[in-house]
Amino acid sequence: MGRLQRRLDAIKKGFHEQAPAEAIEAMSRATAELQTDVDGRGLEFVGKPLPAFELPDSQGNTVRSADLLAGGPLVVALFRGTW
Predict the structure, then answer these.
(1) Distance CA 75, CA 83 (A)
(2) What integer pLDDT is reported at residue 19 of this predicted model?
(3) Which residues contact 68 (CB under 8 A, 6 or more apart)?
(4) How far apart are the first and last CA of the chain?
(5) N or C: the chain end with fewer CB closer than 10 Å?
(6) What does the pLDDT look like over 26-66, one tens digit per residue?
C-alpha cells in the first residue's frame, strides 16, 4: 500500500472516530451515489488508472498528466456539474 493511501486511510479513520453518526451515514450515502451513474450501473473507471490527459488550467494553459506525474503521485478530483 502506498504512502498516499495510508494517509487517506488515516484521515478517514479520524473522521469516523470524531464525526457524528449522521455525518458518517451522509458521507457514505454520498460516496455510494457518486460511484453509481444515472442508470444505476457502477461507473467503469472507479478504481482504475485514469488515461493520460491534457486540460486547460484556470489561466488557459495546457496541463498534461504526464508532466504532473513526472513530479510524483497525482491526485485528480472530478466534480460533476450542478448538485
Answers:
(1) 22
(2) 94
(3) 74
(4) 33
(5) C
(6) 989 988 887 776 566 666 666 677 789 999 988 999 999 99
Cell (9 digits) for 7: 494517509
In this structure, what C-alpha cell is assigned to residue 31? Answer: 460516496
CB atoms within 10 A of CB 75: 7
Q: Are 26 and 19 in contact (CB under 8 A)?
A: no
Q: How confident is the model at residue 2 (pLDDT cuts 50, 70, 90)?
A: confident
Radius of gyration of the chain (CA): 16
How many residues can be counted in the chain? 83
